[in-house]
Amino acid sequence: MSLTPPADGEAFPTLLTRHLCFPVQALDGTTVQIGGRLQLPVGADGPGPAVVIAHGSNGIDSRGQAHALDLNRAGVTTLELDMFGARGLAGGAAGRPAAAHENLPDVFGAFAVLAAHPQVDARRIGLLGFSWGGVVTLLGATRQARDLYLPAGQQFAAHAAFYPACWIYNTVPGYALRGLTGASVLVLVGGQDRYDDPGEEDRELIAGLDPVDRAHIRTVVYPGAEHGFNMFEAPYTYHDPFVHRGRGGEGLSAPIRRPGPPPASKWSSFSGRR
Predict the structure, then answer these.
(1) Strand, coil or helix: 22
(2) To bridge 14 with a disulfide, which of 42, 108, 251, 273 should be the other Cys (CB 3.0-4.6 Å)?
(3) Could you give phi then psi for residue 34, rounded to 5 degrees?
(4) What DSSP state is assigned to residue 224?
(5) 3-state secondary structure 145-183
(6) Is 26 in contact with 98 (CB distance < 8 Å)?
(7) Span 135-163, pLDDT tens digits
(8) Strand partners, 183
(9) What confidence score (pLDDT) does residue 25 get?
């Protein structure tokens, strides 16, 4: 993968990188070994913030590493997951789990791995996801999911969901977005995203929320941007039954030069950085 140089001459961070596996209990009762890439900034003072990164339907691609490096430069540890490999899934609409909540054990298992690491402050662990991973990110922001997978007193401190098919929540069975934990939630979507149809993402997501939950969510819409706007790969099309608000059809993922990965300041709510 080719990455553009950091802005303003900023150097790539010095990292301690580890590839690891950890066991999680899948919803069918079996145990799967989830793989991940752990990137720890060298020279950090004391336990600091960390972010779990969840990929989209096509699996790991340029987005995870680009955002990981952006966060690492700010002193944030990252753990990017491979949620499909252990399940023998190839990715794409026909090669992903039947429902996004099947990957909730993976992200909460990653939380436990990070919370046990001496370089990580368990009170400042965030969750970031793209597309399919964005859906997992939002589902992981509910008290129901938190209480199912984590001990009392622990939860993700912040959530960032990129283009998470905004229309499905509180509409499609299994995608309830109610009873949020109170952690801040950032949703970033493209105004031309074909999953929601142009310009409707913010309105549809907010309309399905309880007012108490709505107060915790901030939505940013990028005019003219397609699904996958922050990837480095060439544009590509695909068929997905969730496109066009569940009518199905051809989707398009396409990068644009701007916006790039959001600055690490977006995570100041849990990292303590300003």
Answers:
(1) strand
(2) 42
(3) -85, 130
(4) T
(5) HHHHHCCCCCCCCEEEEECCCHHHCCCCCCCCCCCECCC
(6) no
(7) 999 999 999 999 999 999 999 999 999 99
(8) none
(9) 95
